[in-house]
Amino acid sequence: MTMPSNQIAPLLNFEMLYLIGLGLGDAKDITVKGLEVVRRCSRVYLEAYTSVLTVGKEALEEFYGRKLILADREEVEQEADNILKDADISDVAFLVVGDPLGATTHSDLILRATKLGIPYRVIHNASIMNAVGCCGLQLVNCSIINQCFYFSQLYKFGETVSIVFWTDTWRPESFFDKVKKNRQSGLHTLCLLDIKIKEQSLENLIKGRKIYDPPRYMSVNQAAQQLLEVVQNQRIRGEDPAITEETLCVGLARVGAEDQKIAAGTLQQMCTVDLGGPLHSLIITGGSLHPLEIEMLNLFSIPENSSESQSVDGLRT
Amino acid sequence: MTMPSNQIAPLLNFEMLYLIGLGLGDAKDITVKGLEVVRRCSRVYLEAYTSVLTVGKEALEEFYGRKLILADREEVEQEADNILKDADISDVAFLVVGDPLGATTHSDLILRATKLGIPYRVIHNASIMNAVGCCGLQLVNCSIINQCFYFSQLYKFGETVSIVFWTDTWRPESFFDKVKKNRQSGLHTLCLLDIKIKEQSLENLIKGRKIYDPPRYMSVNQAAQQLLEVVQNQRIRGEDPAITEETLCVGLARVGAEDQKIAAGTLQQMCTVDLGGPLHSLIITGGSLHPLEIEMLNLFSIPENSSESQSVDGLRT
User: Fold this and answer.
1) Which end of chain A has fewer CB atoms surrounding its CB within 10 Å, N or C?
2) Residue B162, marked binder
3) Parts of chain B with a pLDDT under 70
4) Which residue of A21, A256, A299 is in closest CB contact with B126?
């Protein structure tokens, strides 16, 4: 029997870097363990570019009782050593909305810490990658007696995709192959929708001016419209897009927050459904649904009195 | 613009059913919001059959300051109405290790509540489905400038599978098709490993005797051994198993707990690596790895002084 080396350092015994997930809703979605660590760290950074909570920095500061240092993308990528400064002699916390290990840059921070001999610890939390189960998708086939209770609803999700904001000149469709492949395999697709925080215009970028555009968050409406345009393009090229205007989709907004909204309906309906403020996500269902999935989605179906509405089990999935 | 109906009830305004995730480690991995709800509910159930924490019911009761009612599978499936009793006039909490919407039965509880007119609310937490990012897999191709920061590491995971305990007469191999398909698409596979809690022997089941076997949790060693047997069977049948003894895998134990262990090595090494007590999970990598992934996995590689060891970047993936 062999033992892996370099294991996680026991909590509280060393000065170290903590990567702490904040969950998805508001200040109180941090874990008790996470809050205890935040309250005793010498510096607390808030990663502010891959996601947002429904409350701002000030609300977090008030609840945590700590000043937070906003860490934007530039800071984390270019000045990681500042973040890690003295983390070997005092505790430093790096707060991330959702779970800390959802995005590339945070692995990078761990690797830099490790190279500097600074121990690290991750305090996990909910992220959209698992909380998406809130809509009732994905039950599995329960024909194997005694096994089904452990089979996760998330199993029927295929590879996750990102849908990015199109520009006049940049309209990538490559993500759509994964959607098609999932759909053809009977798997749902979770589409994470683009966010643009602290982006520079091309002009400002070229001129080296640190002037930033206002933040933008892609809505389910925008994502659905882009998807329908890809579907049209595929038809024009004589390809089978595998999804249509009538494909059953689920729009999700502010998952985990008090005012979370979920809407189940056709891709066409997703173009106009009003889900309110960010963040939004979109699920394209995989086709055949389990009866329990249909029952759950019916809780969220766009109502009959809408001109476009249909009940979920009447939908051509 | 249309508004979806049946939205989530605002927190604290109604008596309702709360489904609360406990996260993955110990008592303090509950969120602050979850703890507040637990402390004021009239009845608090602990779901005790799809997963376990590193601490027992008593430790949770002490930290929460509340008595917990153990809800086993039978209770939740057959006596859901007892759990929901009076949840329209008082708050009832249903605690689940990980995130509450990982398993079939909990959707069922939501549907029953909804039919009884009882509002519900989910308080999410980390689950193995997202916390698996702790091993450093899965960075994405960052060639799209300005987009990569939002691309999750979890994107390169394909469909998740379960590996169940084989018996003398029941040795299902069907899950292996998904592993192969993921591997052939360059996607990693998260394998959740079987747990058997409060299981009855066939004899006791037939005789209707409520005598239960001791709990069993599949280890990474057992999973790897079963996988290698499937690989052998595929070879005997002249099929290409797509993975071999040398395929790079990651074994994970007690993710999110103080004594979490991660080991990266070959599938063969996974047969003997000592990761300690439950719960275990296994990742079969998808083949080509990003340099940052390799760097992260190297933190966890089975050490050189082991007779079987190899550094990760020397592995034939």
Assistant:
1) N
2) no
3) 1-14, 49-50, 102-105, 138-155, 304-317
4) A21
**Chain A hits for B1, Cβ within 8 Å:** 272-274
pLDDT of residue B95: 95
Taking an 8 Å cut-off on Cβ atoms, the answer to whether A134 and B122 are in contact is yes
Q: Which residues contact A124 (CB under 8 A, 6 or more apart)?
A: A21, A99, A100, A101, B23, B24, B29, B126, B130, B131, B134, B255, B256
Q: Chain B: nearest CA to A187, how far in angstroms?
A: 8
Q: From the CA of A108, how many Å to the nearest CA of chain B?
A: 7
Question: Helix, strand or coil for residue A274?
Answer: coil
Whether B127 has a binding-site annotation, put simply, is yes
pTM: 0.81
DSSP A79-129: -HHHHHTTTTTS-EEEEESB-TTSBHHHHHHHHHHHHTT--EEEE----HH
With contacts defined as CB-CB under 8 Å, which chain B residues touch A149? 49-50, 73, 103-105
Chain A interface, best mutation among B96, B105, B154, by max A CB count within 10 A: B154
Nearest to B114 among A260, A264, A299 (CB): A299
Task: Please give the helix or strand (H or E) that residue A281 lies within, else none.
Answer: strand A280-284
Q: Which residue has the tokens 């009195």?
A: A305
Give chain A positions within 8 Å (CB) of B289.
Answer: none
Complex ipTM > 0.85: no
Domain with CATH 3.30.950.10 in chain B: 129-299
Amino acid at B18: Y
CATH dotted code for B17-126: 3.40.1010.10
B311 among the known binding-site residues?
Answer: no
Q: Which DSSP symbol is given to B2?
A: B
Chain B residues touching residue A105 (CB < 8 angstroms): 149
- Please check whether residue A243 is in contact with residue A287, taking contact to mean a CB–CB distance below 8 angstroms: no
DSSP three-state, residue A60: helix
B4–A264 CB contact, under 8 Å: yes
CA distance B16 to B122: 11
CA–CA min distance A118, chain B (Å): 13
pLDDT in tens, B21-36: 999 889 999 999 999 9
The helix (run of H) or strand (run of E) holding residue A38 is helix A32-40
* Cβ within 8 Å, pair B260-A33: no
Predicted confidence (pLDDT) per residue in A288-306, tens digit: 887 878 888 888 999 765 5
For residue A253, list its beta bridge partners: A261, A280
The size of the A-B interface in CB pairs under 8 A is 314
At A155 the pLDDT is 64
* pLDDT in 10s for each residue of chain A, 317 residues: 344 444 444 444 568 999 999 998 899 999 999 999 999 999 999 987 667 777 889 999 999 999 999 887 777 777 788 899 888 889 999 999 888 886 556 778 888 898 899 999 999 999 887 777 777 774 333 322 233 333 334 468 888 888 999 999 999 998 999 999 999 988 899 898 988 877 788 888 888 888 888 889 999 999 999 999 999 999 999 999 999 999 999 999 998 888 999 999 999 999 999 999 998 999 999 988 878 788 888 889 997 655 443 444 444 34
H/E stretch holding B83 reads helix B80-84
**Hey, are the CB atoms on A149 and B10 less than 8 Å from each other?**
no
| Domain limits, CATH 3.40.1010.10, in chain A | 17-126
- Residues of chain B found within 8 Å of residue A151, distances taken between Cβ atoms: 103-104, 162
**B255, two tokens:** 């993710």
Taking domain A129-299, whether its CATH number is 3.10.180.10 is answered by no
